[in-house]
Amino acid sequence: MAAKSLGVALVTGASQGIGRAIAQRLAKDGFRVALNDIPKKEQELKSVSSEIEQQTGSKPCIALADVSNESQVEQMVGEATKAFGGLDVMVANAGILHENTKIVDLSAETWEKVFAINARGVFFCYKHAARQMIAQGRGGRIIGAASIAGRRSGFEHGAYGASKFAVRGLTHTAAAELGPYGITVNAYAPGFIASPMTTGMTTSALANYGFITPENFKFGEPKDVASLVSYLASKEAHYITGQTVSPNGGVYLN
Ligand code: NAD
Fold this sequence. Notes:
globular; seven-stranded parallel beta sheet; Rossmann fold; Sc_DH/Rdtase_CS; 7 strands; oxidoreductase activity, acting on the CH-OH group of donors, NAD or NADP as acceptor; binds nicotinamide-adenine-dinucleotide; NAD(P)-bd_dom_sf; SDR_fam; alpha/beta; NAD-binding protein
């Protein structure tokens, strides 16, 4: 059986990749977890839920929602809160990659789509998690997905990089505004992590992004990001807020 619960954590985009690893890690740490993804990923979410239940003895709840839709995000936060009696950690992880398009060829539709999920979606998650945490009055942790592309954007991913810079800006403002409520707000900015998002990307292609590739550089694993999120979500991390931390294996030194 799971040890005494550390609280309730909601992870968006949890059916695969980094989100799945974060949900597994937070459940292992002792959080009750709520798993989100878009409705067409329901079967995958059920598999992640079963894995977590087997590993920890604690059954997650599933809260389907498209994070770019505000009423769905509000409902998702409500479902997690109702299932487990509150919300202590929000991980706004869901995002989409768009690359290989120069700015001169980038359409307004693509820009809007990337921003709708990567920036507006994170905004809605921060906003509704913060409202719930403020109402509860017991502090909290809000953590968002940026990227090294949100630290230094390079060739042919103008919309993606700009959307991840937006996450950093939002994280600063949210940290400043929510500090008085005992809520910390931070972001993770992964480098190149092996996940469905990066399938097909090779280390030799990284030069296109303008990053250095240290000798013998290998893609990181989703668990390399999950361990950072585990720390940021912990009580111990109470003095860290407004930061964007980059697990990237040395491809970008900041
Ligand atoms: P992934 O594509 O493997 O998984 C993303 C998940 O988000 C998917 O399950 C997808 O269905 C879900 N999702 C997409 N749109 C959604 C929406 N509107 N509402 C709810 N869920 C939605 O990606 P990943 O590699 O696991 O990346 C996770 C996060 O980390 C993303 O924000 C990504 O931009 C960021 N990131 C990843 C890397 C990397 O190398 N993999 C590097 C930097 C940043």
